[in-house]
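Slide 14.
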Amino acid sequence: MRKAFLLISMAAVFIAGCGGSSSNSSTPPGPTFPAGEVVFEIVHASQDAPPVNLSVGGNVVASGADFGDAAFVTTEDGEVTIVVEGIIPGGNTDVITATDTFADGQRVTVFAANDVANIGPIVLVDDQPEVAATDVRLRVVHAASNVTPIADMVDIYVTAPADPISSAAPITLMFGDFTPDAVTVPAGDYRIRITPAASSTVVYDSGTVALAGGSDLVVAAIANVGPGESPVELIALTGSASLRLLDSETPADVRVAHLAADVGPVDVLIDDVLSPVQGAAFGAITGYLPLAAGPTNFKVTVAGNASAVAIETLDEVALEAGETYTVAAVGLAGDGSLTYDVAVDNPRRIATESRVRIFHSSPAAGDVDIYVVGTGDPIDGLTPDFAAVPFGAETGYVPLAPGGYDVHVTEAGDQTMPVLPVVAVTLDAGGIYTAIAVDAAGGGEPVGLVLADDFL
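Slide 15: predicted structure.
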């Protein structure tokens, strides 16, 4: 089992230089570690865990590290304690505490892995031998838990870019396993593919990746929590930096929102081709569409009339592979304010919290204050959670403990002037909730709400 995920992580190695979205890259050599010091690299690899604070030897080395982030620190040798503190609404809690003794020149890699209910450390301790300029040295880890369809066991194939997977013997690994010894391979171009164990169905394909000579890398598979069909992505650690490699076919996910109150039903053209978004009425929000990464042009036309352009972008929207977006038509045609708003979404669900995001897309409302309080609680004398929010702005994702809340939206600076009736919500753990303030149909007051994600 340990062998299959070895390749997964190997793929991450190849990416060290690709920035996480390119399938063609060259990995830089890792750093040299001085004797008398221990280098730690700590990775948040729990796909449904909250952001964390990381400390090594009593010193905080990262605050608010999110899934896929890595922290690096060098300490003196001897006994060292590592603490991973989950950031949880209502009070943080330590989820991992590990103490051990480390020797001169060691490199210690820690993955906080598994789902949040079973989170625990995967720890590798390695010395730092010199690596020949013609070779790459790898330690490989399977740190992706509960990912369908591969479950815990996978086969990994490392081949020349054009060769079939049958040209190489698979490496099989289980979750939590890593190669007991480093693997040394010649520098060059490779292709990494992953299948469920004993299957020929490829669920991850790196495309062509360049493995640079002189590198000493720890590579791992972690869960893919973004767009695309592959259940995993790869991460490579150099001792001082981390780089991620997506499946070569990973798209961007894009949904379209019609929030222009005085515009009738519309069609959406993507790069001048009619998209599945047709006849969308005011207030409609589509599901996510997978689109190829790169510069992309969106046009909104009168439904059924592709020549009647309601909105045309002056600049193309640059879509990145692995990112998730909401592209919204906002403003009013009548006053010339009709335009696009592009927001980056985050589809990762966190088991310990609910996340709420509020968009201000109502020209009639003016600047507003937003209060989020317990059910039935007054706002008298409270400072707004978000003050003087202008048209076109958003709150970002607000982490809240699951439960009941009232959301108050008032005119900026005046608690006695509600812009909307009080909105009572019940939020579940792991939920993502989006509310958008919009004008009434046709424009102007009364201001209303368009709801999305788990509000529906």
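Speaker note: The helical segments are 4-15.
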